[in-house]
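Worked Example 4.2. Read the sequence first, then its structure tokens.
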Amino acid sequence: MKPVVLKKWIPAVLAPAVIVAFAVGASVSAKAQVNLEPKTPQQLLELIASSKLTDFSGTTTATVDLGIPPLPDLGGTGMMNKPDVVPDTPNESGTTTSPEANVLSALSAISGTHEARIFIDGPDKARVQVMDSMDEQDFIRNGTTIWKYDSSDNTVTKGTLPETTSMKIPQRRGTPPTPAELTDSLLTLVDPHTEMSMQDGTRIAGRDAYTLELVPRSDDSLVAKVSIGVDAQTGAPLQVVVDAVDQQTPAVSMGFTSFTPETPDAKLFEFTPPAGAHISEAKIPHEAKSQLKDHKNATDQPGSAHDINDAVHGTGWDSVVVIEAKDVPKELAANEMLKQLATPVEGGKLLHISLVNVLLTNDGRMVLGAVSLDRLQAVANGQ
């Protein structure tokens, strides 16, 4: 199964799990209760769907606690490469990074607390400033020109997009989605197996907000509940909190700590490389065309849709994906770190974090979902 095909069915599992090699969000604090015009869950969904907000700015902060167990010592260099580095390639020191180091880097990028500033002006002007300890990364789109700046090594990448492109700013691991993007993913799970309710009105990022609560009607889901804070004036999602079963603190807590629904200053989308920065050119048009071509070829292949449907078992919160042994990426199948983290169970080994279970079967398959081990084992056994 080709990577582009995998992308089609992975969201069926990762959306309820809210695993984002790219997850960033906001910690929840006590907020004052406010009186708002009463709305039903359906009316709030309609408010979100009808939101016309295209220009805004704000700061998002996040706490991500996926219950990742202590990581084993892999020996060797013990170095974790930067998320953008390709495995098994020399890094700055001349040493070679491994798939294990890359996985460590990904886990490190997800966990903990993160902060970003977001500025949006319509469909073709955007700036995201990601704060990482003492370093900062900027991702800027101004019309057809895009920039990426990393203060940690003073590097700049510039690219030019095709005039007709709708391409978004590329996200590396740790780059924050917006609460609206996460809300869109979660709302695809709303079905008869979801209990929806309205909670008391509150204040989020200094604005009056409604809170919609989603609770899976499932005995197997690892998701206990999802709370979505929605701006009462604009209908824009301001905060998303995902609670995991048997975990006291939220697994993912994402949202704005400040939010302004106005057009940002145009100067924010202008960028001048700092003195001494190393500047490189990105061949964006060629890469964009290649991606579109690969996507078309994958969807046009006979049997592709059939393969995707066969890979996903169940719907909504109970969705499970089965990756056949021949399709499991070799860097995962042979990953020593994953083997050490996994726990022996009937039929294979279990890798568990708060929102996802992964069953590595004895016959080499990978069975995963935001569901219980019993559910994974039942699917693995064809039940």
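Now turn to a second chain, presented in exactly the same format:
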Amino acid sequence: MPKKIVLRIKPSPQKPETSPDVEVVPPTPPQEEQTVKEESVKPVEEAVTQQPVGDELDEALKMYDELMREIERLRGLDRNFMLYCIKMEELRPQLVRNILSRLAEKRNALLEKSGEVLERLKAAKEALGSEFAQVEEELIWSSIELNTMQLEKDSDSGRGVGIREELEAKIPELRKKLASLRNRLKMVEEMVKQLSDLPRNIADITTNKEEPAKLFEEIKKKYILSHGQRAEAVARAEIEKIAQQESIPREYAVILLWKSLANR
């Protein structure tokens, strides 16, 4: 029987697969946690965004003071003219109207200037209101923070005590600043209202009242002799009549009536 021949084929050695060179990056060690600095309580000046209120308000107040001086000067011109009228032997209504026309021109110029001052005051009022709101907000927030820290258990730690002390010092400053802003805001609001009403009462506030009041009392005394208890009513009616006929203010009508009675 023939022998069975078994051929054993030895496999050829496989070449190792070549792979591209890869740069081996060593493992990055875990980054150390950054130490976060504890935020301290900001001072009042930094905590509240500052508005350019100071210069704006100072300029508006300066313009307001100048305007008030001009109003006072105009009142002085009116008073001096009244005294001149009282001293004149013959006072012509036409002369009174002419001089009053010049005073009216000055009043119109004053009103035009007051419009600019009013706009400056309104801008200052808006800036003050904005700063007031910021300080008020900061005060409330700081108070809430302080109240919360006082209730927390860890508020007695070193960090808690430091921040709490800063809040306790900051809150009174905020209250003081808020009170100051409130007073300034109220002052500016009153000025704004005064100038807003100026077109309606410019003639009244720039007209002297003292001299006509004195003359009116003298007129009443003379009318009492002829009209008794009706003296004041009759005198007022006569003054109103002269004012309408001559197209002059009642204050000057008083002067005309007084002079007519003095010449009788």
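Notes for the reader: The chain has two domains: 46-207, 209-264. Residues 209-264 form one domain.
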